[in-house]
# Entry
Amino acid sequence: MQRRNFLKNSALASLGLTALPFVSKSQTNSPLASKIKDSFTPLAPQITTPRGAIYIPAKAYNTWQQWKEYNQDITLRDFGYAKSIGLNSLRIWLSYEYWLENPKRHEQCLEMMLQAADKSGFKILLALFDSCGVDNTAEARKNKDPKTAVAVMSPGLAISRDPKRWQEPTAFVNRIMDLHGTDNRLLAIEVMNEPGLANGRLSMTRHLFKAAKEKQKSIPLSVGSLPGMENWGHFMDLGIDILQFHNNYPTALPAFKRDLAMAKEVAQVLGRPLWITEWQRLRPAGNGWNQHALPKEQLYPNFKSLASHVRDAAIGNYFWSLMVKPAYLTPQRNIGTINGLFYEDGSVFSLADARSISNNPGFNAKEKGQM
# Structure
C-alpha cells in the first residue's frame, strides 16, 4: 500500500500539486480531482481499453530490419493471427534510421501496414523512437546472429547526448505528424519508449514531445513508461494524453494486481487512460533483468499466468509479443528468454495462453511449444 500511495502521489505531484494526500476511490470526484482534470483536457483515443500486442515480425531482430524487410503478405498473415484471438490494436515501432536511408519506401511501407491494420479492424499505437536496446550502429542494425542480434535504441547515443543534434530526429517527428496527424487508423502516437535520465534521453524526449505537440491535431500523444510513474510524470506539463506503464515479469501476483488497480484509480484521478502496454508472465524466481539464472520453465511464455487478471482490471493492455521470438533485449536474451504467442505457420507456443488471452476456451490451433 505504501508503494501504491507513493505512485499516485507522484503522479499528482507531476502536475505541480505538491504535498498531496493519498487519493482513494471515494475521492476521485473531489475538488482536488476536479482541479487536476480541469487543468488539461486530453485528446481521447478511439478505443479506451484496447486489447493488443507488440508486433515485430518473427524474423526481424530490430525495427530497422522490420521496415527494411517489410512484406505486406507477412503483415496481413500475422494480423490475421492477431484477429483470431480478438485483438483490436497493435503497438508498432517505426525506424528513424531506416527513414533516413529510404524515407519514401518507409513511408510507403507504413501506409501499406496501416491499410492492412484497417482491413483487419485494428487501430495502431504507433511508436516513433525507443530508448531500449544497444547503441544504434550500422553493425547492430544489420546483426542477424540469433545469439547477439537485439533491439537498437533510436536515435542513438551520439544524438541524445548532443542537444545540438536533437533537431535531426525532430524532422522525423514533424514528418509523421504531417502525414498522420489526423489518421484515424492510429489509436495514438507514442513519441518515445522508456526514456531514462541517462545520456540525455529524457531531455531529448521532452524536446521531441514538444515538437509533436506543436503539430498535434486529432491523434492522442503518449510515452512508453517503465513500472510506476517515473517516465510519464515528466510529460504531464507538456500535455500527455495517454499514460502507460510496463510490467513484463512481475514476481508476485498480489503486487501485480495492486498495480492494475492503481492504474485504474490514477486514470480516474487524472482524467486520462493509463494502459499497461507491456506484460508477459508471472516469474516467481525473479524478473531476470539482472541476468541471474532462472528455472528453465520460467524462461518461456506463460501469458495465462496474468491474462485473466489483466482482463479483469478492464484497462488497455498490450502483451509482448504477438510472434514467438528470442528476447528483444540483451539481459533477457543472455538468460535464454523466449517471448510470444504465434509461430509463422499459425501454430502457437501455448494453446492455454491463446485461449486465456482471447478469453475463448474454444480457440484451436496447433501447439508447438519450445522453439
User: Anything to note?
Assistant: The beta strands are 51-54, 89-93, 123-130, 186-193, 221-224, 243-247, 274-279, 317-319, 325-326, 338-339. The chain has a mean pLDDT of 91. The radius of gyration is 20 Å. The CA atoms of residues 139 and 349 lie 31 Å apart.
